[in-house]
UniProtKB/TrEMBL annotation:
It comes from the Bacteria. The keyword Oxidoreductase applies. One of its GO terms (biological process) is cellular response to oxidative stress. GO terms for molecular function: peroxidase activity. Belongs to the glutathione peroxidase family. PROSITE patterns: GLUTATHIONE_PEROXID_1, GLUTATHIONE_PEROXID_3, THIOREDOXIN_2. Residues 1-160 form the Thioredoxin domain. This is Glutathione peroxidase. Coiled coil: none annotated. The lineage of its organism: Bacteria, Bacillati, Cyanobacteriota, Cyanophyceae, Nostocales. Keywords: Oxidoreductase, Peroxidase. The active site is at 37. It comes from Nostoc linckia z8.
């Protein structure tokens, strides 16, 4: 089974189709996000990563998800308003998706099988790192903060390749 995501199409927060192959040559940090989670403050850290590494080729992609504790009940418009007003988010946000279950989005079906540990996303703000070739190379649980050396070292390593 392929561990690349380049063939997958997602919807932007404005309901436009976006092909993940359009990110070829960029390093991606894909995160399932929620507005009412104990980890919601990670939006700040994700935005810091976005600002610090965007010029170097990092793209942070946020996928709102209501699968965990119903912590993302809002509409796309409400989500954008919350993220921009509360955390100054400028990284890309996408249409609300299912990260697990019978309606799991094909992106998360691929992500959760691509690298160890495999299996369902456990909670909001789980992070997947994708290299410039579109291959999933690392997975970080929700408690790994965006400022953690483990995550930053992995991002910097991929950007340097």
């Amino acid at each position: 089974m392929s561990n690349t995501i380049s063939d997958i199409v997602v919807k932007t927060i404005n309901d436009q189709d976006k092909q993940l192959k359009d990110y070829a040559g960029k390093v991606l940090l894909i995160v399932n996000v929620a507005s009412y989670c104990g980890y919601t403050s990670q939006y700040s850290g994700l935005e810091d990563l976005n600002k610090k590494y965007k010029e170097a080729g990092l793209r942070v992609l946020g996928f709102p998800c209501n699968d965990f504790g119903a912590q993302e009940p809002g509409s796309n418009e409400q989500i954008v308003k919350f993220c921009t007003s509360q955390y100054g988010v400028t990284f890309e946000l996408f249409d609300k998706i299912h990260a697990k279950g019978s309606q799991q989005h094909p992106l998360y079906e691929r992500l959760t099988k691509a690298v160890q540990p495999t299996g369902d996303v456990a909670w909001n703000f789980e992070k997947f790192l994708v290299n410039k070739q579109g291959e999933v190379v690392a997975r970080f649980k929700s408690n790994i903060h965006p400022s953690s050396p483990e995550l930053i070292n992995a991002i910097e390593s991929e950007l340097a390749k």
